[in-house]
């Protein structure tokens, strides 16, 4: 953590600390927060920032504080240095690059071809260069996603290429007195009870198909495997319609196209002991070069020598290949990430920036780690550690800590009763989360806007009309088109995207609005023909109120009552000529006594708001808090109260 000291006017030193002195983004931009730690009397400012950086919060302050930066999208990499509390902060935007695979092994006896896949943003340029005469690359440059063809012919020490700013390792497998074509497995070692990855060397130097059989035979008293052999899927170039398939997991493999040679997956019995060994035989190799129509050229393969796999008590170092998800949210709840790779043991543990995290073992290729709440944005690095004997630390993969909006499925509820019972098309819902917007805002016009402040909510890809937004809550109308049992919701705030969250859908989820806006207590129910709440005499939450008399009609305001006739367009208020009636009749009980329901439908002039007019039964109990429940489609609402006399 960088630190700096200043001397105040009275000569005493003032210590100030910044968290996040270097921040990096992709070209899409984003936002980040810089924390300032200093004494309560120490003033500070943010200055010297370019126009593409907006200081949304924290241009100046006194004592502890935070500076929120918003970085505009860019078409090219760039960087800037600004001053926060007198300390230099570097902000940069760069292109993200990844290449697959990152290494390949080739026989040193002839020319071979393969492909490297490049993944990056569309506007990001990349280049592929080789300073090794044994390795040719084509094309030498590109932009966005693409492929690089390798043509390899050589022997000796390996070579390192630069592809899209990433290292690609080329290895040469020495083959003595080997003919042009051969499939070969190297000698290797493993521990008991795991699936061991054994690379397969060889193949074709041009577009062709190869098939062969592999058998695993115990030597001496080594226990017989009970699980069949498998293969690790290879990577082929889709544009060439190439593929790799497993014909029989018992050992027959079929390769086709420009494919990186896959690896054999060998299951080692738990009962194997150090010193046991197995023999891997490759037999029945045949191949042909694919031509047009029936013009297929046969290729002769030489016999392949057997390989030996020896059991050892030295634990191998784990190999980490992927994370899912590869990001967590700032200040979010604990996130479970799935780590996949090779040679995981029950003693293996996942680490974030070198610190152990709670880890559960699934099998030798999968672990699950619990990432606790992280309060500082940026990139963390995940590794897997297996303790001695042997073992060690895997390579690292990045885990991004994002600052976008967050919410979960339990935070999406009915706007009246705040119960997560599924969202209903056309109704009003509330979404609770974090970092939803910078400041509260309320829609002032109809049709309702789909962006309010800097927030949008998408339901199954459709922008939902917004009623109210705040940093922790958004009220929106569920689009009438959102029918089904599961919906996908996503929030976009200030250009930052939340995760897509699956939310249950419902046909009916009735909820009655209440005066306290919490879904309990005094109902939002008006006495018919008046502007008075059917509540205790006087005022209810500042609104004139009096008890409803037996035989009077009250209008109950609610949401979640499902389909209607004369359905208005999403985001538009309901009309009165004709009225929009619910497809199923609602029932109302007052003090346990069923009422006559005179109207059940959308409230004219409102969006997503329903209205049920019910007559107070002649035998309804009197009181200042008589229970009232609405039911539709067999689903009961929250229990609220009205006053009856």
Topology of this protein?
Elements: E1 3-7, E2 13-19, E3 22-25, E4 30-37, E5 43-47, E6 53-57, E7 60-62, E8 65-71, E9 78-84, E10 87-93, E11 98-100, E12 103-107, E13 112-119, E14 125-129, E15 135-138, E16 141-143, E17 146-152, E18 159-163, E19 166-173, E20 183-184, E21 188-190, E22 195-199, E23 201-202, E24 208-219, E25 230-232, E26 243-248, E27 252-256, E28 263-267, E29 277-289, E30 297-299, E31 307-311, E32 319-324, E33 327-329, E34 335-342, E35 349-352, E36 355-356, E37 359-363, E38 366-371, E39 378-386, E40 392-393, E41 397-402, E42 406-414, E43 428-434, E44 441-442, E45 455-459, E46 462-463, E47 466-469, E48 473-477, E49 486-493, E50 496-497, E51 501-504, E52 511-512, E53 525-527, E54 533-534, E55 538-540, E56 543-546, E57 553-559, E58 587-590, E59 593-594, E60 596-602, E61 610-615, E62 623-632, E63 635-636, E64 640-644
Parallel strand pairs: 3-10, 12-19, 21-31, 33-41, 54-56
Antiparallel strand pairs: 1-2, 2-4, 4-8, 5-7, 5-9, 6-8, 9-10, 11-13, 13-17, 14-16, 14-18, 15-17, 18-19, 20-23, 22-28, 24-27, 24-29, 25-28, 26-27, 29-30, 29-31, 32-34, 34-38, 35-36, 35-39, 37-38, 39-40, 39-41, 42-43, 43-48, 44-47, 45-46, 45-49, 47-48, 49-50, 49-51, 52-57, 53-57, 55-56, 57-61, ...
């Amino acid at each position: 953590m960088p630190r700096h000291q200043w001397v105040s006017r009275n000569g005493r030193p003032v210590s100030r600390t910044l968290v996040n002195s270097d921040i990096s983004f992709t070209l899409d931009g984003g936002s980040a927060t810089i924390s300032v730690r200093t004494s309560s009397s120490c003033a500070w400012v943010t200055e010297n920032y370019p126009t593409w950086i907006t200081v949304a919060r924290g241009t100046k302050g006194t004592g502890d504080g935070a500076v929120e930066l918003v970085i505009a999208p860019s078409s090219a990499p760039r960087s800037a240095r600004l001053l926060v509390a007198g300390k230099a902060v570097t902000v940069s935007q760069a292109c993200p690059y990844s290449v697959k695979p990152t290494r390949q092994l080739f026989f040193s006896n002839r020319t071979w071809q393969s492909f490297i896949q490049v993944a990056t943003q569309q506007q990001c340029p990349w280049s592929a260069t080789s300073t090794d005469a044994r390795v040719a690359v084509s094309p030498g440059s590109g932009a966005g996603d693409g492929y690089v063809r390798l043509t390899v012919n050589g022997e000796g020490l390996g070579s390192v290429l630069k592809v899209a700013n990433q290292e690609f390792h080329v290895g040469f497998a020495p083959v003595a007195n080997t003919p042009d074509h051969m499939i070969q497995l190297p000698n290797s070692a493993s521990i008991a009870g795991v699936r061991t990855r054994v690379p397969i060397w060889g193949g074709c130097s041009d577009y062709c198909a190869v098939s062969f059989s592999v058998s695993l035979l115990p030597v001496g008293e080594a226990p017989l495997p009970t699980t069949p052999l498998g293969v690790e899927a290879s990577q082929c170039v889709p544009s060439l319609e190439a593929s790799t398939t497993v014909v029989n997991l018992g050992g027959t493999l079929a390769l086709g196209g420009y494919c990186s040679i896959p690896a054999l997956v060998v299951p080692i019995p738990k009962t194997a002991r150090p010193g046991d060994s197995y023999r891997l035989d490759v037999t029945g190799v045949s191949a042909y070069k694919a031509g047009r129509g029936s013009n297929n050229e046969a290729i002769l393969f030489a016999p392949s020598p057997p390989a030996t796999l020896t059991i050892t008590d030295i634990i191998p170092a784990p190999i980490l290949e992927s994370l899912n998800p590869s990001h967590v949210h700032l200040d979010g709840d604990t996130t479970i990430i799935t780590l996949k790779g090779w040679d995981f043991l029950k003693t293996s543990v996942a680490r974030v920036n070198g610190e152990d995290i709670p880890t559960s073992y699934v099998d030798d290729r999968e672990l699950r780690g619990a990432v606790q709440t992280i309060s500082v944005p940026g990139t963390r690095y995940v590794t897997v550690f297996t303790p001695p004997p042997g073992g060690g630390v895997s390579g690292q993969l990045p885990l991004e800590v994002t600052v976008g909006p967050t919410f979960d499925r339990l935070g999406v509820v009915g706007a009246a009763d705040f119960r997560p019972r599924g969202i209903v098309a056309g109704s009003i819902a509330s979404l609770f989360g974090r970092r939803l917007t910078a400041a509260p805002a309320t829609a002032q016009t109809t049709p309702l806007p789909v962006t309010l402040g800097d927030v949008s909510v998408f339901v199954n890809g459709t922008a939902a009309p917004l009623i109210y937004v705040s940093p922790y809550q958004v009220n929106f109308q569920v689009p009438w088109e959102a029918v089904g049992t599961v919906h996908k919701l996503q929030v976009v705030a200030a250009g930052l995207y939340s995760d897509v969250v699956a939310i249950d859908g419902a046909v009916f989820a009735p909820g009655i609005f209440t005066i306290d806006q919490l879904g309990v207590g005094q109902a939002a129910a008006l006495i018919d023909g008046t502007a008075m709440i059917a509540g205790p005499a006087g005022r209810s939450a500042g609104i004139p109120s009096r008890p409803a008399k037996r035989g009077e009609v009250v209008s109950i305001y609610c949401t979640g009552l499902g389909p209607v006739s004369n359905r208005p367009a999403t985001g538009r208020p309901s009309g009165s000529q004709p009225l929009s009636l619910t497809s199923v009749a609602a029932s109302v009980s007052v003090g346990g006594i069923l009422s006559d329901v005179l109207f059940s439908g959308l409230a004219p002039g409102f969006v997503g708001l329903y209205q049920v007019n019910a007559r107070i039964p002649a035998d309804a109990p009197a009181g200042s808090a008589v229970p009232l429940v609405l039911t539709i489609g067999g689903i009961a609402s929250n229990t609220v109260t009205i006053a009856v006399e």
